[in-house]
Amino acid sequence: MGILDSLENSPAFKGALGQLEAAVVPVVLSEVLGNGSQGGLNAIVAKLQQAGFGEQVKSWIGNGQNLPITAEQLQQVLGSDTVKQLAARFNIPVDQLAKVLAQQLPTAVDHASPDGKLPHSA
């Protein structure tokens, strides 16, 4: 195990990363899900469905357990350039940003659709 591996697994690093995620994730999600360059929640959902992730999206919107999406899959749908721009804007490594978005996006969509439907204004 190299020094970077041990650093990444250290509680201090994870704590700092957790603070970074807590501060940046809401802003990044609002950028992705809001009316930013991606066109809002409905546009993101449509992109995911068109890319073959309809089952995942359906699980996020509906009641029950949210199906996962990988960082790579999400980066493919959003576009590498978009993820790179967001990562640069918030000074976060691209792979870390994609990983966090993949973890948080299902929950964000789930919370935005409490009655099993996306809001029209999203």
What is the secondary structure topology, with strand pairs?
Blueprint: H1 3-8, H2 11-33, H3 41-50, H4 54-61, H5 71-78, H6 80-89, H7 94-112
Write up what this structure looks like.
- The protein has 122 residues and is mostly helical.
- It has a single domain, classed as Orthogonal Bundle (Arc Repressor Mutant, subunit A), CATH 1.10.10.690.
- Helix content is 69%, strand content 0%.
- The protein contains seven helices and no strands.
- Helix 2 crosses helix 7 and helix 5 (71-78) packs across helix 6.
Structural key phrases:
about 120 residues, Arc Repressor Mutant, subunit A, 7 helices, globular
Return residue spans where pLDDT drops below 50 for at least 5 consecutive residues: 1-16
Please identify, by name, the CATH architecture. Answer: Orthogonal Bundle
Structural class: mainly alpha
Give the overall silhouette. globular
Sheet with the most strands, sense and barrel status: none
Write the H/E string, N to C.
Answer: HHHHHHH
Measure the end-to-end span: 45 Å
Offer a quick outline of the entry.
This protein has helices at 3-8, 11-33, 41-50, 54-61, 71-78, 80-89, 94-112. It is mainly α and 122 residues long.
